[in-house]
Amino acid sequence: MKRNPVTVITAGLIAIVFLAMLFAFQVRQTEVAVVTTFGKFSRIVDQPGFQLRLPWPIQNVYKFDNRIRNFEKKYEQTTTADAKIIIIQAFLGWKIKDARIYLERFGGDEKRAEQSLEGLLRDAKNSVIGRHPLADLISPDPEQLKFDEIEQEMLAIIKPKAADTYGIDVVLLGIKQLGLPESITSKVFDRMKAERQQLVAQYRGEGEGKAQQIRSAADKEKANILAQAESQATIIRGEAEAAAAKALKTFEQNPELAVFLLKLKALEAALQQKATLVLDPNTPPFDLLKGAAPATSAVPAAASDNR
After folding, report:
1. Superfamily (CATH H level) for 69-180
2. How does pLDDT run across 233-292, given as a tens digit for each residue?
3. Which residues contact 82 (CB under 8 A, 6 or more apart)?
4. 182 burial class (0-12, 13-18, 19+ CB within 10 angstroms)?
């Protein structure tokens, strides 16, 4: 019986595909594979491409996603070094480091792997937080916070245990959220308020100190200025007294001339600006003007208009 060529080609292709499925497998860029022979470990394939194998049940191939996966821990209470209760939610990123250990420990079950990581994360969190006071996590001063240091300490505890025991590489770890039980929230606020009041008192004290320094400097400058002014005034008074004594000697030689000059100086000072004065002609120093009036005029009062 003559066979149809199309049927023969199709059957051949199906046979090739079937043999390829039995004797070859493909590993993707994001995968790692473990090959076992009669249920025992044979080799790890971490390079992408096609690989040869013996057919089942001689050899089995287990493939795992080798990308970083995220795991978040639920809120849990823990106690700080100063006996304060806080609530923390932490997360970590992990991937398979040793596929053989991972397969033997969990059989490739990701949920079982994360349950084991949850226990490691809880132990590390309680251990590290228990060595730090609450001020390292909650503080009005950002420089006192030690989130990065706490996260690195937790990662340093988890990383070697996860790699050696579970074949898992913990790539990163962080604190996602931080909370306080309602019972101690008011106490924390009171402590933060007390810290703020302490800072206010410190700033006020520093301000008072600076103000006192400024006042002291101003008083010192004032005393210096007054001393200099008093010194200059003493010098001026001395010079004036010397000049007065000299003038007095001159006036003693001719008292009438001295009185005349004094009246003349006073009259000059009184008439420096435009003025109209009505006075008794006998009032010094205006009695000097009597001699300036016409002989035929009889004036009961003297008038002066300086323009």
Report:
1. Band 7 domain (3.30.479.30)
2. 889 988 888 887 777 777 777 777 777 777 777 767 766 666 666 666 666 656 665 655
3. 133, 134
4. exposed
pLDDT in tens, 78-102: 999 988 888 899 999 999 999 999 9
Question: What number is the average pLDDT over the span 164-171?
Answer: 95
Tell me the HSE value of 9 on the side-chain side, using a 13 A CA sphere. Answer: 3
Domain boundaries, the chain: 5-65, 69-180, 185-253, 254-291+300-305
Nearest to 113 by CA among 90, 129, 89, 97: 97
CA angle 48, 54, 56 (to 5 degrees): 105
Average pLDDT for residues 198-214, to the nearest whole number? 89
In terms of C-beta density within 10 A (0-12 exposed, 13-18 middle, 19 or more buried), how is residue 286 classed?
Answer: buried
Q: Which amino acid is at 75?
A: Y
Q: Give the tokens for residue 2.
A: 């003559």
Closest CA to 75 of 181, 165, 203, 168: 181
